[in-house]
Write a structure and sequence with these properties.
By secondary structure, the chain is mainly alpha-helical. It contains 24 helices and no strands.
Length: about 425
């Protein structure tokens, strides 16, 4: 296998070997624009705007000399790394029309979901389905992509089947494993899923998704009631920079009436909120709000909710603001007010960004607030689908468990006279 094929394969697989191979590829072919662009894509989070622009300008100049497809790929990387997601999505529609089932361009497909627009998400899903049909089931790259799409659509059984197909052709496909982790979350895989993830990660401790897949394993441990293992995974693997995953784990633990894992540094949370990117993306801001909730920082949450309510962007004003305000009310012990704020958001929660498993925590929060205000029947109805479809759902059971001091659920209704029996 050539260095080019190996580098692209490992990058598509999200392997820990991808970065060394990309560096080797660029070192041996310094004027190959696609090689430079893919390396830049892989390390983009470590570059400032000037460095990013410089690398991709050189890459595009070299790619133009090599032909239309390389130039188009580099332009796509330029748009994606500069977070111009709608422009990236529009560009990819044109690119795939000219070069169907291009596996390199598939690396940029998350732009459709990053747009934060339901119309673009649907376009991206349709595009993935078409490319998979063109490439055929033996393309592990496109099978992995479609598995991810199906997982996000809530079609968990199909996602797991496609992920298995992809892993048959490429056992190290990180995207297929990630899609399977999402599908198993919907199905409540429990210990079987954590064992699979542990085995897969052991073969590549440098895998690009090592910490994120460990977080998925922690959620499966929590689903199966192994709270100590969930805490251990968070403490041993998640870094200081993993504010979102750490806070999402801890808020779930707190909602379930359990003590949290190691918390985020409050000063670090404040720094992130005060930074220029603190409210640049709605999902990032939501994660910071979860971090504040774990710290029971009611005043800070209320201030953030006011900022979001005054924001000109509809997703901040109409969705983030009530969610953050609800978190503030819960930390203040006013679960009833949180119920009022969260009830009725429904599908609008998708506008927070992120993926299904990450947004599900809003439903968790509402379920806990309902349980704590004595509305057990409403909480049970809210989680009915999860409890009846997930093989392991101890976490959901804990959300429906009344905590000491919370109002008791109302007695069951009856049409016959006589004493009422508490439920």
């Amino acid at each position: 296998m050539s260095i080019e094929d190996a580098a692209v394969r490992e990058l598509a697989a999200l392997s820990g070997r991808a970065l060394p191979l990309l560096r080797e590829w660029v070192a041996g072919h310094p004027r190959l624009g696609v090689a430079r662009a893919l390396l830049t894509l892989a390390i983009s989070d470590t570059l400032d705007d000037a460095g990013l622009r410089s690398e991709l300008t050189i890459a595009h100049q070299d790619a133009r000399a090599a032909g239309a497809r390389p130039a188009s790929l580099v332009l796509g990387v330029f748009l994606h790394t500069h977070r111009q997601y709608r422009m990236t999505a529009d560009h990819l529609l044109t690119h795939f029309a000219q070069w169907p089932a291009d596996e390199v361009a598939a690396l940029l497909l998350d732009a459709f979901h990053a747009c934060g627009d339901a119309g673009y998400r649907a376009l991206g899903d349709e595009l993935t389905e078409r490319q998979y049909a063109l490439a055929g089931p033996e393309s592990w790259t496109w099978a992995s992509r479609l598995a991810w799409t199906r997982a996000e659509q809530g079609r968990a059984e199909e996602a797991r089947e496609l992920a298995g197909l992809a892993l048959t052709h490429c056992p190290r496909s990180g995207l297929a494993v990630h899609a399977r982790a999402h599908a198993e979350h919907e199905l409540g895989g429990g210990p079987a899923t954590t064992a699979f993830l542990d085995h897969w990660l052991a073969a590549d401790p440098d895998a690009l998704q090592f910490r994120h897949l460990t977080w998925h394993a922690a959620l499966q441990s929590l689903a199966a009631g192994d709270v100590a293992d969930a805490r251990r995974r968070a403490d041993e693997v998640l870094h200081r920079a993993d504010v979102g995953m750490r806070s999402a784990t801890n808020w779930r633990l707190l909602l379930a009436g359990q003590s949290p894992a190691r918390r985020c540094d409050p000063d670090h949370i404040g720094e992130l909120l005060a930074a220029p990117g603190g409210m640049a993306e709605v999902f990032h801001t939501f994660n910071l709000a979860l971090a504040l909730a774990v710290e029971a920082a009611t005043d800070e949450l209320r201030a953030l909710a006011r900022r979001a309510a005054d924001d000109e962007r509809p997703d901040y004003r109409e969705v983030l603001a009530p969610v953050v305000a609800a978190l503030a009310e819960i930390t203040a012990g006013r679960s009833g007010r949180a119920v009022d704020l969260l009830t009725g958001l429904g599908e609008r929660v998708a506008r927070l960004g992120g993926v299904r498993v990450e947004r599900e925590i809003v439903q968790d929060t509402l379920a806990r607030a309902l349980t704590d205000t004595g509305e057990h029947a409403r909480a049970a109805a809210l989680l009915h689908h999860r409890v009846t479809t997930r093989r392991h759902h101890v976490y959901e059971d804990l959300l429906l468990t009344r905590r000491p001091g919370a109002p008791a659920p109302p007695p069951a209704a009856t049409t016959l006279p006589g004493p009422r029996i508490p439920s």
